[in-house]
Design a protein that fits this description.
The chain is of the alpha+beta class and 340 residues long. Helix content is 33%, strand content 21%. The protein starts with a helix and ends with a helix. The protein binds 1,6-di-O-phosphono-alpha-D-fructofuranose.
Length: 340
């Protein structure tokens, strides 16, 4: 009998236990982050269950405009947003919420306020829902550094001021990947226990990868450095093998694969979208935070992504993120262009 393996199987490191362990390293900590995180976990479990049922609901006629009681059915992304907003507000640990689904920021009323601000995309990649492809929730967390009325200025801060970030991927398994500034850790939902269990401790991205991930349908509108970079992925000049192309079209899935296998994910600027497509606060920053924590890099075409200072809550930015050496290469191409 393999006692060591048995001990491993019976000594489960749940996400709550993991965060409590981390918390115990800070004697002044009052458990606010643990409480906030347990509400994120609740939202993720809810969305996971709803996503799993989405196909079935459609099949048996529960989804659509109205349900059998004649009530309007909410779309999954709207429903997910409602769940997360309510979980954050009721946690009593948040003051400002910015969601991809809501045009304006939500300011929590004073009786329920707490020290955190959360920026999030409750269901990213929602155009993939109907075909059962992986989608996800992305979040980033800031702390309030004053006791005055909260404003949008509390979240219009560079990504390097985030205290934590993560995503939950609803795919063949449900996985929550989190960093609170001490490495990146992955937890997989055990559906029979209803608990996220630590399965990927201290994720490090390979220094170089052999996959590039981009929507090549936009190639005719790319700028010089992006065009040159993708050309090099396909026809390397140094005799190395060409990179493989993988593109899901769900940022969480594409970034998750990049984190585990290495390589680069690009959503560049193009002539039609000079600022790219992805949103700074709840797509670019959280993923850039995770990449750097895992030993990779994230670059906008001009600067380190986490050094951007957003001026609007739904601002967009081009993004190149992934393995350290692969991002170095694209940085060099932009540096050369700037000189010429
Ligand atoms: P949707 O939520 O509209 O599906 O957009 C997903 C997304 O914001 C991000 O998850 C993808 O990386 C990116 O857009 C894909 O964009 P393209 O369809 O333009 O490639």
């Amino acid at each position: 009998m393999d006692h060591e393996a048995d001990a491993y199987r019976t000594d489960l490191m749940t996400i709550t236990r993991f965060v409590l362990n981390e918390q115990s390293k800070y004697p002044d900590s009052r458990g606010d982050f643990t409480i906030l995180l347990s509400n994120i976990v609740l939202g993720c479990k809810f969305v996971c269950s709803a996503v799993n049922k989405a196909g079935l609901a459609k099949l048996i006629g529960l989804a659509g405009e109205t349900n059998i009681q004649g009530e309007e059915q909410k779309k999954l992304d709207v429903l997910s947003n409602d769940v997360f907003v309510k979980a954050f507000v009721s946690s009593g640990r948040t003051s400002v919420l910015v969601s991809e689904e809501d045009e304006e920021a939500t300011f929590v009323e004073s009786s329920q306020r707490g020290k955190y601000c959360v920026v999030f995309d409750p269901l990213d990649g929602s155009s993939n829902i109907d075909c059962g492809v992986s989608i996800g929730t992305i979040f980033g967390i800031y702390t309030m550094n004053h006791n005055n009325e909260p404003t949008t200025e509390d979240v219009l801060k560079p990504g390097n001021e985030m205290v934590a970030a993560g995503y939950c991927m609803y795919g063949s398994s449900c996985m929550l990947v989190l960093s609170s500034g001490t490495g990146v850790h992955g937890f997989t939902l055990d559906p029979s226990l209803g608990e996220f269990i630590l399965t990927h401790p201290d994720i490090k991205i390979p220094t170089k990868g052999n996959i590039y991930s981009v929507n090549e349908g936009n190639a005719q509108n790319w700028d010089g450095p992006t065009t040159k970079y993708v050309e090099r992925c396909k026809y390397p000049k140094d005799g190395s093998p060409a990179k493989s192309l993988r593109y899901v079209g769900s940022m969480v899935a594409d970034v998750h694969r990049t984190l585990l296998y290495g390589g680069i994910f690009l959503y560049p600027a193009d002539k039609k979208s000079p600022n790219g497509k992805l949103r700074v606060l709840y797509e670019v920053f959280p993923m850039a935070f995770l990449m750097e924590q895992a030993g990779g890099q994230a670059f906008t075409g001009k600067k380190r992504a986490l050094d951007l200072v957003p001026e609007k809550i739904h601002e967009r930015s081009p993004i190149f993120l992934g393995s350290y050496d692969d991002v170095e290469e694209i940085k060099a191409l932009y540096a050369t262009e700037e000189k010429n």
